[in-house]
Design brief:
By secondary structure, the chain is α/β, with parallel strands linked by helices. It contains 14 helices and 17 strands. The radius of gyration is 23 Å and the shape is elongated.
Length: 404
Amino acid sequence: MNFKKKSVRNVNLKGAKVVMRVDFNVPVKEGKVKDDTRIRAALPSIKYILENGASLVLLSHLGRPDGQVKPEFSLKPTVDVLSKLIGKPVQFADDCIGDATVAKAQALKAGEVMICENTRFHKEEDMKTKTDEDKEKAANFAKELARLGNVYVNDAFGTAHRSHGSTAKICKYIPVSVAGFLMEKEIMYLGDAVANPKKPFVAIIGGAKVSDKLAVLKALIQKVDALIIGGGMAYTFLKAQGHNVGKSLCEMDLIETAKEIMNEAKAKGVKFLLPSDNLAADKFDNSAQIKTVGQDIPDGWMALDIGPKAIAEYSEVIAKSKTIVWNGPMGCFEMPNFANGTLGICKAVAASGALSIIGGGDSVAAVNQSGLAEKMTHISTGGGASLELLEGKELPGLKALNDL
């Protein structure tokens, strides 16, 4: 995939009418934004555009309203938050398309900004275009969005793997389509990790299921020097090696696939590390009885974290790496008694001095929880999008942007 895309810094913004896709899909409770991290992430692009003489219309989705207008999914609560962050008034449009919204966008002066209502209030935003009629409806929606400006900026990496109206299709109908600073940063780190990693290149893959990470495991085996496995998915691999996994999470229908992955790693000379010891519990509860066991989990017990020996072995490999990609926790870190594995890996990655890229909601949450986020090179804003980029897939929202 071509990662050489134009960015907002390649455009003369003076007098431009900019439409920017942001990711303001933030938690809202009782009409208040509970976490403004995603809004803050868009600030460098927003400020740059406004300071360089353009007006700005922001598009985003929030939640899954399924093509219906639902007040609980309104983007209105983001207006006050953004206004405080940039220190100036922010306007709001009750819709993202239509003559009234276009008139409001056209009336914006240089340095002024407006947020439009949730793009997913229209089913055409993310509809499956199976028939010609559906394709025409989706295209018309994208054309309507394009009426809002003459420069399009995509700064929503978290939705770049979706071929939606506001993320990809709009680019067909607007003269200039470029990446925002957040998108540019994601492309730089994740793109380089795919195309040109410094060696040794180590991938740490955790999380509950092998099925969720199958494609990325197969892709990474072609690129990495070592693959470290943790989380619930480890027990499908241990079962494939003939170990007893007790009541641990295990995908029996993927045992043969797990064997194939391990055989391919061996054939490629890739170190494939599974936990040599585990924290087993008699129930899925923080107050459970816990014991440290080896690679065989006793009947009636379930493994909920990697053990101290595994942490030490994984940390040794991490310490020697030059590039690290981490997606997925090592155990049920939400429960304090099963957070040591994930925290241990956080510490090892932070101390490694390697270029470290953290992707996926749970791994990002774990890193933030550890207090070591600032020690990581790059924390990705897109779980699904970062996985697909690592798999080597083309992201529609990225592909649609102008090449350099």
